[in-house]
Amino acid sequence: MENNKDRKPESQEYNNDFNQLGDKSDIKKEIRRSVLQKRKSMDLALAKEYSDIICERIISLNPYKEAEVILSYMSFRNEVNMDKLMKDAINQGKEVYIPKVESGRRMEFYKFSGDGMGLVRGSYGILEPDTEKNLKIYKDAGRKTLMIVPGVAFDESLNRIGHGGGYYDVFLSMLGLNLDELVAEEGKTLGVKSYFTSLAVGYEYQIVDQIPADKYDIKPDYLVTEERVIKKI
Fold this sequence. Notes:
This protein is α/β, with parallel strands linked by helices and 233 residues long. 29% of the residues lie in helices and 18% in strands.
């Protein structure tokens, strides 16, 4: 069941100290440090249990049911594991793609078969596509697409803190999924694509009271935890 801002987040206490820091970058760094520390200490069995619940919640949503293409990711260091969702998508005949960071902050998504073939360990130990295998690259072709976005921390307004590289913001901006501020300034939807949905995933404790937003941050359309679904209003 979807609900929006129906209760205070469990991790609200994080911001009591963070808001005293003042500077946006300092606040984000401290939130990132604290949440990552908690995620690192998370029990592996509990992480798998919550991950499966999150996958089931996503599978029940219309953006997933209607999607022809799923842009997912390979989990790392207790991130929400998407294996169950990717397996379901492939069984349903959807195309699944996973990311690889290329030069600079550019990120490409390569087709994933689900059998582990065509994957190698990247520089951080994350499984990623082996570009020497000539895997199919995702191209925006107007097909209904659901993008699963990982993150370190979120708030109920769908602001997000990642690992600091800005890869997802860059990728989404290149697709023309412009910021609400830009849309408001122009009075029209600047390339916002109705067939493309972004959905962030995290554990409930990753939701904090407030995250300072930067001008070029792009909010996901949904946030799904093991307890609830928050939809952008």
